[in-house]
Each structure stands twice: as structure tokens, then as C-alpha cells.
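Morning F.,

Quick status update on the modeling queue. The single chain you submitted on Monday has been processed. Sequence for confirmation:
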Amino acid sequence: MTPADQILRSLAADTALGVETIAVVLIAYGALEAFVHAAGQVLRGRTPAGWRKELFVRFGVWLLLGLQFALAADIVRSVISPTWNDIGQLAAIALIRTFLNHFLEKDLGEFEPGWAGVLVTGAFCGAASHASSRASRP
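C-alpha cells below.
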């Protein structure tokens, strides 16, 4: 293996680790936000109509975003001289995550029709601001 190959492999591994770290942070933030919101509703003793649906949608968006970053990390990791075993593992992981994304988006679309296809259309940023504006409504 040449020094350039070693550098490229190291760069890919570091990049994949960084992207995976972002995925973990996004999912952890979403879980913390959902927990704090749910705890606040329970502790206040008043539960406005639809708060669980709103909580599900907000947490679902964080999960979808985290899954996208996790898949990106897997792709980066497999780019440098993949073996057939690496390709098979990536295909299995991509398939599982794609199904998770699909069904989570479908569930989000049932709760909030404007969310359907958010990641597919590339309008995630607009959807995220939509969620925050809905969350801030009384």
C-alpha cells in the first residue's frame, strides 16, 4: 500500500467518524428535546390536544436526519477499495435504513400531510422551519 493510499484511507475513516458523530448528536438532541417536551407536558398537568402528534413529528424529523448522516458515513467508509463483503454489508445497511426512512416519512405524512416526501424533495430545511413555527404556536 502506498503512502497516498494510507492517507486516503485515513482521511475516509476520519470523515466517516465525523459524519457518524454528527448523526449521533442529531439523534441524541432529538431524543433529549422529545424527553424534555414530554416531561414538561406531564409535569404541567395540562396536555393540549395533539401534543403527542407534534412530539412524534418533531422527533421523527431528527431521526430521519440522523439516519441520513449515518448512511452517508457508511458510504464514505466503503468508498476506499471495498471488498464484496463490505459492499454486501453496505447494501444491507442501506436497505434497512431506507426502509426505516420510508416508513418514518410515511408515518410523518399521516400525522402532518406537509411532511410527506420532505427528504425526497430536498426541502428538509423548509420543513424544519415549518416544525419550529408549528411548535411555537400556542
